[in-house]
Amino acid sequence: MDCKKAKQYMSDYKDFRLPKRAAIRLDAHICGCSRCTHEMDILNQTSLHLKVAYPEITAPIGFSSRVMSEISRSSRRPAPMVVPFKLKRLLMPVAVMAASAILIIGLYYEGAFMTVSPAIEEQPQALIEEVPYQNGNVIDAHNVAEDNETAMLPPLVLPEEPADSELTVEAPHKSVDVEDNVAVVENTPVTIDIPAFREKPVDHSLETVSHIQGTNGYTAITDSSFVDIIPLDERIETNKADLTEIPDFSIFMPRDRIINSISVNVFVGRIDEALEHIERIELLYGIVPDMTETNLLGDGTIAMSRSYTIPSKFVNSIVVGMSSIGAASEVKRSSIDITADYKEMIDAHIKLIRELSATGEGVSELKDLISQMMRLDNMARHEVSNIILTIEDKIDF
Amino acid sequence: MELLKQQVTQTVKDAIKGDTASFEQLVQIHQNRVYSLSLRLTGTAHDAEDLAQEVFVKAYRFISSFRADADFGTWLHRIAINTWLNRKRKMTPVAAFSLDEPIGMDEAEVKREVADFSADPEKVYFDNQMSERLQRAVESLPKEQKAIILLREVEDYSYEEIAQIMDCSVGTVRSRLSRARDALRKCYNGLTEI
């Protein structure tokens, strides 16, 4: 057998698909040929690396709800639908909450579809729910979370049929208030409007409370266990593309079609230890978190996550740096696909800043624009910083 | 395990009868695998969700044609592959950009990055590079080869299952897989020789 033939056989050989006789001949050839030994080794290594390159990925939160909504919108239905007693839907999301509880850490800000309340200060119980949009690096938390399901979620006890249109349930949800930037959580009963609830799509939320702090100082509290049962009109359905329309809601906003994002999650209970190292890395690379999340989990423990958009040239270094922190439970890097509208908006801003910088006119407008850009994300900040370096001798910043 | 299997089979049967709640359960059971495959095929989260959603909508529409004793997950993957291949066939060929091609910027150039999942600091750099190169190499394969390599190497389907999903012969699976592996092997060699 020559090397050319051996190479042709290798794929079948690897999968035990080669007839025995040919396999023996190939074995003999490989043993005596260092080149083919190397090629076979490469074939096996490639397989291993492919599994690393394409890990198991969890579907975005709320995906099944969206599928079912789409199906219900579709006019082509295979058979008359049997609509079960809708209160079963109350139990289902609660069960899924636990299964997804760990998942929430580090994923919030990647949400494409969000429910936001910009007036969070006046409305402390308003909620943000964010569903991961691009989660190529999502941790598979299901197995872990399932183990904790019982501990984290007291069972709901519901009557078989509600007698009235309203039903008060001692549900394991929390009410949230903000005092000195701390989320105060209390168990309180909730009144569920049954007809409204029946109309509401199932939302697989999480048993966790998050205190989210954005780049521009906005704060928001989420109580995911509560999301499912608040009336729809208390929330604003939006998505990433619309966020720029919401005043005071400047959030991580990537600047090109593909953007690098890193999030670092911290071992529960080791926040102080991790922060010291994280802030050193932030200082070193001149990055600031787009978002810091402090999550109060269902079992009362606190977890933290910070997220960044990162200029490409620093990505590997920062991932390595963050990974080396002993208290970091996970460092995730992802590429995020963003809207063309956002890219256009940013490009237009940058262009205008350049034009104004070149002409030296409209200093006030220029400063405003720069201020806006500096609040957006690290990529924008780096680009604008480069411009400032070229004009700082002309304009007093 | 056997009990779970029986429960899933019963859920499939109920869904075939038109029970939407059962179908929703099936969505929840299979959504991660379908979404994973969709993301691997399309490369972006937006397209992946779009594809995965279409898979389930089609499954719902055509569930009456599904044999309850077959593997529902394999059937969903078959729908995913066919839907994706059809979409690719319908698309007008466009100039592909290389992931090596930097993103154009006035002041500087930024290399395109693809997702990376490493967490081990000692291996992270090499793994990053390897994963990115392999993903690019997979992207550059002809669409049928790409589908087959993902089904075999990542999804761990057998040749027979792949033939069923791709609606082709086992021989075709073998030859396409061999060609795809050859291309990826060259890519791997290229990186290790740097």
Gyration radius of chain A (Cα, Å) is 26 Å
Q: What is the molecular shape of chain B? A: elongated
> Gap between N and C termini of chain A, in Å?
74 Å
Q: Most extensive interface: pair and counts?
A: A-B, 78 and 73 residues
Low-confidence stretches of chain A: 75-192, 200-210, 214-258
Count every beta strand of chain A, where a strand is a DSSP E run of 2 or more residues: 13
The rough form of chain A would be described as elongated
**Adjacency order of strands in the biggest sheet of chain A:** 8-7-11-12-10-13
Question: What is the H-and-E element order of chain B?
Answer: HHHHHHHH
Number of domains of chain A: 3
Determine the number of helices of chain A (DSSP H or I, runs of at least 4 residues): 13
Class from helix and strand fractions of chain B: mainly alpha
* Overall number of domains of chain B: 2
Amino-to-carboxy terminus distance of chain B: 48 Å
Helix residue percentage of chain A: 40-55%
Largest sheet of chain A: 6 strands, antiparallel
CATH topology of the largest domain in chain B: Rna Polymerase Sigma Factor, Chain: A
Please count the beta strands of chain B (DSSP E, at least 2 residues each).
0
Number of helices of chain B: 8
Unreliable stretches of chain B:
92-120
Model description:
The complex is a heterodimer of chains A (397) and B (194). With 397 residues, chain A is of the alpha+beta class. Helices cover 40% and strands 20% of the residues of chain A. Chain A has 13 helices and 13 strands. A 6-stranded antiparallel β-sheet of chain A has the order 8-7-11-12-10-13. In chain A, α1 crosses α2 and α11 runs parallel beside α13. Chain B is built from 8 helices and no strands. The longest helix of chain B has 23 residues. Chain B is elongated and about 55 Å long. Chain B starts with a helix and ends with a helix. Chains A and B meet through α1, α3, α4, α10 and β13 of A and α2, α3, α5, α6 and α8 of B.
Descriptive tags:
heterodimer, A: 397 residues, alpha+beta, three-stranded antiparallel beta sheet, elongated, B: 194 residues, mainly alpha, Rna Polymerase Sigma Factor, Chain: A, Arc Repressor Mutant, subunit A
